[in-house]
Amino acid sequence: MSLGWVAVPTRVQLVWAQGRGGAIGRDNTIPWRVPEDMARFKELTIGYPVIMGRKTWDSLPARFRPLPGRTNIVITRSDDWSADGAMRARTVDEALVLAGPEPVSVIGGAEVYRAMIGRATDLRVTEIEVDVPAADAFAPEIGDEWEAVYVGDRLTSTTGVRYRFVNYRRAIA
Ligand SMILES: NC(=O)c1ccc[n+]([C@@H]2O[C@H](COP(=O)([O-])OP(=O)(O)OC[C@H]3O[C@@H](n4cnc5c(N)ncnc54)[C@H](OP(=O)(O)O)[C@@H]3O)[C@@H](O)[C@H]2O)c1
């Protein structure tokens, strides 16, 4: 085992979209359609590694898997999991080491956001004005250590859904 320094990302952004009450998913899908948010997701993540949980990987439609133009790192506790186009990590730390020194995006789901928010430097949240009855996956709590550095205007999607973008940065103590 190497005892040298290992380069891990200095910027770790969590990227998610949440409905009312912090809902982010139901039955392993995202329960709304906001193409403008998908475009922003691509803009925020393209060219850099992305880290996701195995269930989020499973939830991606086959034609988006792996997410193109990004190193796809999937966290799983399973030793024998593998998928074309994905790197497997067994822990949060292993995922960050695989990502290397570049900025990295953590793209869900709920369990992985909870496991990684303590390592994050930035949160990129899309607030979607929809109720999600029977939601079963929720965004992590945004505590006092986070400062909103950008609050976008409320916009209306081509699908009619209202939304806005909010960016947070870890507050300097
Ligand atoms: N709205 C959004 O922005 C957004 C974004 C992404 C996902 N989602 C939604 O979120 C839901 C999925 O979230 P989820 O919480 O159920 O699943 P998830 O976080 O995507 O994946 C959970 C799995 O990841 C692995 N894992 C998680 N934490 C780990 C850790 N600390 N160490 C090792 N492995 C770990 C485990 O895989 P194994 O079971 O293989 O061991 C675990 O079962 C879906 O509904 C999806 O559509 C929403």
Provide keyphrases for this structure.
DHFR-like_dom_sf, binds NADP nicotinamide-adenine-dinucleotide phosphate, 18% helix, Dihydrofolate reductase, Dihydrofolate Reductase, subunit A, nine-stranded mixed sheet
Q: What is the assembly state of the chains in this entry?
A: single chain
Q: What is the CA-based Rg, rounded? A: 16 Å
Estimate nothing, just give the exact number of structural domains: 1
Low-confidence stretches: none
Q: What kind of sheet is the major sheet?
A: 9 strands, mixed
Name the overall outline: globular
Q: Which structural class best describes the helix and strand composition?
A: alpha/beta
CATH class group = Alpha Beta
Instruction: Give the CATH superfamily.
Output: Dihydrofolate Reductase, subunit A
Could you tell me the mean pLDDT?
A: 96
InterPro entries: DHFR, DHFR-like_dom_sf, DHFR_CS, DHFR_dom
Domain DHFR: 11-170
Organism: Gordonia defluvii
Catalytic activity: (6S)-5,6,7,8-tetrahydrofolate + NADP(+) = 7,8-dihydrofolate + NADPH + H(+)
